Each structure stands twice: as C-alpha cells, then as structure tokens.
C-alpha cells in the first residue's frame, strides 16, 4: 500500500468524487447503538423536566414559563442538531476540526391544525476558503449526508406514527 493510499490527508479534495467523499465521511458514529432511556417528569402546571439515563436534563413548558423549551422548540432543536451532526464529518474533513457551524431551523405552527406544516433548516458555514468546484462538491456531499443520516429529518419526512399507552389504565 502506498503512502497516498494509507493517509487520508494525502488525498486532495479535487481528486475525490462526491460519491467517494461521501462514502469516506458520511457514515458517522453517533453512538446511537445504545439508546438512552428517556422520560419527562412533571414539575408544575404544564412544566416538565426531560431526562435521559445518561444524566442530561432539559426544561420543558409553555412560552410563559420562562427559561424553558416548548415541545415544538425541542422538535426544531432536534432537527437542527441532527442536521449539524450529520454534516459535521464532511465539514470538518474539508474545513478543519474547529470549523464554526450554526444550524438554524424555523417554521411557524398552524394553530388550527396544531402542527408545523413545514420546517426549514439553514446550515451556516464559511465556505470562502474553497473554490467554486470545491464548494459545489461539499454542498452536494453535505446534502447527501443529511439525507442519508439525519434520523430526525428522515423520521419527519416519512411521517412516523406514534402510539400512546397510559400505564394507569385498567
């Protein structure tokens, strides 16, 4: 095996095809193999604390409750986080491990239907260090990585069903 084959740094981005580059960086390990147990506990009127078995916490409630996330905001944050995590390896590979990335997500609710009919994501990253062909290639790779690996986005696009059971039922 030559040094070029052994070292990913030896390959130039110009020599990579979008498909080869995607294969090299778009299979990130998100440690989802061992999912956390998740639950919420009531802390007051319409306020809850979301918890994970890994010790994470998030405060949940209506807008008027102060420093809390609404459930809709958490949905949007989950989507933005998933987009960022899915794109991260490709972006860091080409722009450096310390590349600043912001993912914004928006979408007004439809109060009559009590749902978000559309959510829009915007990934903000400085691509000025790349030439036009490199930018186009990276944008295609990022789109493909997100399409393949953003579980939250894929779940929303495919309309997951939900099933509620109430443990106190007879």
Q: Can you offer a commentary on this structure?
A:
There is one protein chain. By secondary structure, the protein is of the alpha+beta class. It has a single domain (17-157), classed as 2-Layer Sandwich (GMP Synthetase, Chain A, domain 3), CATH 3.30.300. The protein has helices spanning 3-6, 18-25, 71-95, 132-149, 151-157; strands at 38-44, 47-52, 57-60, 102-106, 120-124. The chain has a three-stranded antiparallel sheet with strand order 1-2-3, with no helix packed on it. Strand 2 (47-52) and strand 3 form a beta hairpin. The termini are far apart.
Summary keywords:
170 residues; alpha+beta; GMP Synthetase, Chain A, domain 3; 5 strands; elongated; disordered N terminus
CATH class: Alpha Beta
Strand content: 15-25%
Q: Major sheet, described briefly? A: 3 strands, antiparallel
Order of strands in the sheet with the most strands?
1-2-3
SS summary, helix count: 5
Overall radius of gyration: 20 Å
SSE run: HHEEEHEEHH
**Shape by Cα distribution:** elongated
Q: And the CATH topology?
A: GMP Synthetase, Chain A, domain 3
Task: Give the SSE layout.
Blueprint lengths: L2 H4 L11 H8 L12 E7 L2 E6 L4 E4 L10 H25 L6 E5 L13 E5 L7 H18 L1 H7 L13
Antiparallel strand pairs: 1-2, 2-3, 4-5
Helix pairs in contact: 2-4, 3-4
Short description:
This protein has 170 residues and is of the alpha+beta class. Helices cover 36% and strands 16% of the residues.
């Amino acid at each position: 095996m030559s040094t070029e084959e052994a070292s990913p740094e030896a390959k130039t981005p110009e020599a990579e095809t979008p498909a080869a580059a995607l294969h090299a960086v778009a299979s990130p390990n998100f440690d989802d193999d061992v999912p956390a147990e998740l639950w919420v506990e009531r802390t007051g009127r319409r306020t809850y604390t979301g918890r994970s078995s890994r010790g994470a916490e998030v405060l949940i409630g209506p807008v008027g409750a102060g420093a809390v996330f609404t459930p809709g905001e958490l949905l949007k944050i989950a989507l933005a986080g998933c987009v960022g995590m899915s794109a991260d390896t490709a972006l860091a590979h080409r722009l450096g491990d310390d590349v600043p990335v912001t993912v914004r997500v928006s979408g007004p609710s439809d109060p009559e239907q009590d749902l978000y009919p559309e959510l829009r994501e915007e990934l903000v990253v400085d691509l000025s260090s790349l030439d036009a062909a490199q930018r186009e290639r990276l944008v295609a790779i990022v789109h493909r990585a997100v399409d393949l690996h953003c579980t939250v986005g894929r779940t929303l696009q495919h309309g997951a069903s939900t099933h509620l059971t109430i443990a106190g039922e007879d």
